[in-house]
Amino acid sequence: DGGITQSPKYLFRKEGQNVTLSCEQNLNHDAMYWYRQDPGQGLRLIYYSQIVNDFQKGDIAEGYSVSREKKESFPLTVTSAQKNPTAFYLCASSISWGGAKNIQYFGAGTRLSVL
Amino acid sequence: KQEVTQIPAALSVPEGENLVLNCSFTDSAIYNLQWFRQDPGKGLTSLLLIQSSQREQTSGRLNASLDKSSGRSTLYIAASQPGDSATYLCAVRQDTGFQKLVFGTGTRLLVSP
Q1: Model confidence over B29-84: pLDDT tens digits?
Q2: Which residues of A touch B104 (CB under 8 A)?
Q3: Which residue among A6, A42, A97 sits closest to B103, beta carbon to beta carbon?
Q4: Pick from B49, B93, B103: CB nearest A43
Q5: Measured between alpha carbons, how far is B89 from B38 in angstroms, rounded to an integer?
Q6: B101/A105 CB distance under 8 A
Q7: Is the distance from CB of B18 to CB of B11 less than 8 angstroms?
Q8: Do B60 and B44 form a contact (C-beta atoms < 8 A)?
Q9: Closest residue by Cα to residue A40 from B65, B48, B87
């Protein structure tokens, strides 16, 4: 089955702890994205990667970090600097960044809560 | 700065009704507009994508229109079914610079049997 797999489905973070959300895709897509969704708000872009070994900050990158060492993987780390991490996190990918091929496909999401 | 608004925020209808969801955006310099469906606690599923040069797109009981000059799009759902119950999000892709998707806050739809 081709698609985007996010894990875990639920994650709990203790005070001062860094946690990492996994995103894997087997669609052979070059571009990948991380979004944050809060109740009553639209999705907001955290980081994006146009190609392996490259990534850029989105609108709300503070307190988050990413890596893109492999084409199929784009993990997101929520650091202790992110003071309000409770949210639903969505990963997406597209064939490429620009033009008509930027149709994004989404994973099922990870819900992060603070203990 | 692009802002996307969806009205109403929530809608409850009986099964069989035709309904319209609205999306408006402030900057008409868009590349395309996309409608998504989100079930509770799940990811997004793309329903329809309209390029900026198009006026509408249809898929089954769904029809989406785009009026770029007035900054509006509508999603028309014909003969609604309980299985249509979900949150519907619209998103516009900027035509300039950083071509990111800008999302609306969604319309939560409940179709009662």
Answers
A1: 898 999 999 999 899 999 999 999 999 999 999 999 999 999 999 999 999 999 99
A2: 42
A3: A42
A4: B103
A5: 7
A6: no
A7: no
A8: no
A9: B87
